[in-house]
């Protein structure tokens, strides 16, 4: 028993940014330190993600309550971890996995497990008097990530007639993180002005980006170029673009075709979709495409990587689900060249860090990511710096659940002072 031993673990149900129930875990150590962590939730979830446990009673929050996960924390996890050393994160996460006993965390629920895993790490950092990013990453963690700000929301994240889910602005040419935030936010404001002028609607989607009445990627990217210029910058110089088509959402497994169901009903095989990306990447300064092919379409991923992998960062999200097993398969097949990291896809902090490590050792770039259903918890900002990932996507500049992560990174930038670096991955 030490002052870092876990004395008490509790959990509660709160709301996420979409007004759906989510879980918060609270860990108290012997020395009295208490820390909490909240769990986010996706909409365009990958089918191989760890299971998010929901109660399923349609009469209450449409079945989305997390009472069972809360109970699992209090009745099963708390007694198993009580008295354990919080600084032994791997041991804690191993115990959680043993207690769950399933491959996809369906017994305890990945939401119950992740909440506890993250709260244990935060309590440890706090008890040691260290900033969370420093505790998680050590002395070499000083790279502030380039923000990938999702300013146009389509797909499963809004009612816009757009099949591609995310259009991001990437202020990679900024000299510092805080300047990148300024370049991005100024462009976001210019975009609002343009949307107003053109009567396209300024309503927001789930990640705080606009959800305008536009139905093609060309129209969106042209508008983004105009917004960048209106803000006083040059597309491809200070500000680049990235897309997450989230193509698993519009893949039809029975015919093997991609179908633009939200817009013009166009239907195409992977090879034509890749041609389309290539044309877009020729016309616009697109430096990253995520989930350009669907989660089970490994052939499509191979075409995509062969045709675009030299020129564009190709990020696997639904494809890898932050899981070392799927990433290993990707490495063997030579698909993608980057991975999206979402801790709740895998369910513990240690496994998240293992996946990051595997990616880096195999030359895959790493981007930390929020979920479309977020919380005010800025853990992700610390994790991005801890991993020296160099890239983070956490929405636009218009909702506190998103801006909270950027604001935390601004604080970390200040904390790092001269040791902080920005802009390379
Ligand atoms: C953040 C994303 O969306 P969701 O959280 O809905 O999976 C994504 O697909 O990258
Ligand atoms: Mg995605």
TrEMBL record:
GO terms for cellular component: cell surface; extracellular region; phosphopyruvate hydratase complex. It comes from the Bacteria. Mg(2+) binds at residues 244, 290, 317. (2R)-2-phosphoglycerate binds at residues 165, 342, 371-372, 393. Its EC number is 4.2.1.11. Its cofactor is Mg(2+). Residues 141-424 form the Enolase C-terminal TIM barrel domain. GO terms for molecular function: magnesium ion binding; phosphopyruvate hydratase activity. It is found in: Cytoplasm; Secreted; Cell surface. Binds a second Mg(2+) ion via substrate during catalysis. Mg(2+) is required for catalysis and for stabilizing the dimer. Pathway: Carbohydrate degradation; glycolysis; pyruvate from D-glyceraldehyde 3-phosphate: step 4/5. Substrate binds at residues 157, 166, 290, 317, 369-372, 393. It catalyses: (2R)-2-phosphoglycerate = phosphoenolpyruvate + H2O. Residues 6-136 form the Enolase N-terminal domain. Keywords: Cytoplasm, Glycolysis, Lyase, Magnesium, Metal-binding, Secreted. The active site is at residues 207, 342. Pfam families: Enolase_C, Enolase_N. Belongs to the enolase family. Catalyzes the reversible conversion of 2-phosphoglycerate (2-PG) into phosphoenolpyruvate (PEP). It is essential for the degradation of carbohydrates via glycolysis. This is Enolase. It comes from Methylacidimicrobium cyclopophantes.
């Amino acid at each position: 028993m030490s002052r870092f031993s876990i004395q008490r673990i509790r959990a509660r149900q709160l709301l996420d940014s979409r007004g759906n129930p989510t879980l918060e875990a609270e860990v108290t150590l012997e020395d009295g330190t208490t820390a909490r962590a909240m769990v986010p939730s996706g909409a365009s979830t990958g089918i191989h993600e760890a299971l998010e446990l929901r109660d399923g009673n349609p009469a209450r929050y449409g079945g989305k309550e997390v009472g069972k996960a809360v109970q699992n924390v209090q009745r099963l996890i708390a007694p198993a971890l009580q008295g354990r050393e919080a600084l032994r994160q791997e041991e804690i996460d191993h115990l959680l996995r043993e207690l769950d006993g399933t491959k996809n965390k369906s017994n305890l629920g990945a939401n119950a497990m992740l909440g506890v895993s993250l709260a244990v790490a935060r309590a440890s950092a706090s008890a040691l008097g260290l900033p969370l990013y420093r505790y998680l990453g050590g002395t070499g963690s000083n790279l502030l990530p380039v923000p990938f700000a999702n300013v146009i929301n389509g797909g499963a994240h809004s009612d816009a007639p757009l099949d591609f889910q995310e259009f991001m602005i990437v202020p990679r040419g900024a000299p510092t993180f805080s300047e990148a935030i300024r370049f991005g936010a100024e462009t976001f404001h210019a975009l609002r002005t343009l949307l107003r002028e053109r009567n396209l609607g300024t309503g927001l989607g789930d990640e705080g980006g606009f959800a305008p009445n536009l139905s093609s990627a060309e129209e969106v990217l042209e508008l983004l170029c105009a917004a960048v210029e209106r803000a006083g910058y040059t597309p491809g110089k200070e500000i680049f673009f990235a897309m997450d088509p989230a193509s698993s959402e519009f893949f039809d497994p029975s015919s093997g075709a991609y179908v633009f169901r939200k817009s013009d009903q166009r239907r195409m095989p992977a090879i034509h979709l890749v041609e389309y990306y290539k044309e877009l990447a020729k016309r616009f300064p697109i430096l990253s495409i995520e989930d350009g092919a669907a989660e089970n379409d490994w052939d499509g991923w191979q075409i995509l990587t062969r045709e675009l992998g030299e020129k564009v960062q190709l990020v696997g999200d639904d494809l890898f689900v932050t899981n070392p097993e799927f990433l290993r398969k990707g490495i063997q097949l030579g698909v993608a060249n980057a991975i999206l990291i979402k801790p709740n896809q895998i369910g513990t902090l240690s496994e998240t860090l293992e996946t990051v490590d595997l990616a880096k050792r195999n030359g895959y770039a790493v981007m930390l990511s929020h979920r479309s259903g977020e919380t005010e918890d800025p853990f992700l900002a610390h994790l991005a710096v801890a991993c020296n990932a160099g890239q983070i996507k956490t929405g636009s500049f218009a909702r506190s659940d998103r801006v909270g992560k950027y604001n935390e990174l601004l604080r970390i930038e200040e904390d790092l002072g001269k040791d902080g670096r920005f802009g390379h991955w």
